[in-house]
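S., here's the first fold you wanted:
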Amino acid sequence: IKKIRTRFGGNFSYNKSYQFINSEENTNESLVRGMNASVGTNFTKAPNVTLRYRITYVDQSNSARPSDIKTVTHAPSIDFDAYIWNSVTLTSDFTFNEVRQGGSKQSSFNIWNAKLAYRKDRDAKWEYELVGNNLLATGSQVDISQSIIAFTVNERFILPRFVSLRVRYQL
């Protein structure tokens, strides 16, 4: 039992604000609920895996609009870490994120990173790493949100696929 870790969590927020636009009252309401869970292993010799899942519900209403906006975000992820042959370490992580509004997909992206490291033994000064970031070549991540004043669409550009060889010396 000590080798398995679990975690559950959640959040809740409610916001209601009033404003006047051209002498007309405008009411904005936002209700956010989120849940997350993870389960993972904590072995010293066997590979370790951690699975996570996060879901967020956002309901937004504005008295100036005829319909409410309902957004659901799904975000599963997995981390893997293994120490192999007493000299090689393999780590990898994958994250998927999907945003839906009104049942239709608005945006999604996924990121995969991996690292293979070699060190002759635990006391060796030299370490060699082959590191790959954004191996699926995801170009950008889009976030859609609403505030009191406006709808916003934020697009964050992600660095392109990048593979590097690193040599490390420990003093």
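And the second, which I think is the more interesting of the pair:
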Amino acid sequence: MWIQCTWSEPYIIDATRVMWWYDNGGVKLPLSAIVQYWNGSEFVEVTNMKDASGNPVTSVGVEGNGTLGNNRIWNGVTFDPIVTTKLRLLITEPSSPVGVGVGIGEWEIFGLGVLDDPELRSVIIVGEAKPVIGDINTYKTFVIYPNLEGVTYEWSVDNENIIRIVGDNTGETVNVEAVNVGIAKITVKMKDSNGNVLTTGTYTLTIQGENGPSFDINTSFNMDGLTPGYTLNARVDVTNNGDEDYKVIIIAALYEADKMVNVSYISKIISVGASESLSCGFKLPSDLTNHKVKVFVWDGDNLQNTNMIPLSDIVTLE
């Protein structure tokens, strides 16, 4: 599971801390909490993290000293400065007992106050990452730079056979047309009043065919209904009818009422015209009261970086 904080304009972030909430009943301390940030096109893991003692770590701490709101331990980490508009905690829940959740009392995110530091500057680009041929999309640059006047911009593309700039290429925004299927990059240079390049940002686009993704998807199970104590296997047959290779993720999730209590997934790149059979599943609990399994197909290759674009209807087994 993950929790995310989003803000409208990018900031330079170098620390975060969490105070967990738990009752040692249905809500327990997590096993780990990885920090991820949005780099303009996907979530990536924050590296070079250190705990409060200066020791290298790969996760925010998961300690507590009191239940039911009495916990007063802050689990903090620092890391190399990043420029972002989104920060995410990728939380690993306890594996047992089934149905245990994780709670957060407080979560704080800290920046460097770099608006007073002329040595720190950055630029990122935001906009549609997967346009369709013929689309013209607007891309915007966000700049972190202190009290700088007279900044100018210069946009360019690396492959005009795939994408091309439409109109002006010297503003904070630029219009880009998707010309052909493929992968290409747009670049923006930020310059001072003398024309010197201060910093550069790039953004990768994956151009899709005119029809976008198109699939035939069929889901089947190894049982007619949920059977206590047995291992459920969900098989999904996928045929790519589109005009580009596509990454798909097959997800099988077990719900108790409206709460997800178990999940399994598998992903694969499906080539144009190809058909693949993908299977995932898990052992069902002995008590299946109010339980059901939902299977669905999303765009992406794992639960952490999927765009959550549905490629199929949800299939339910009870």
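Why I say that: Residues 2-112 form a domain with the Jelly Rolls fold (CATH 2.60.120.260). The chain has three domains: 2-112, 122-207, 215-317.

Talk tomorrow,
H.
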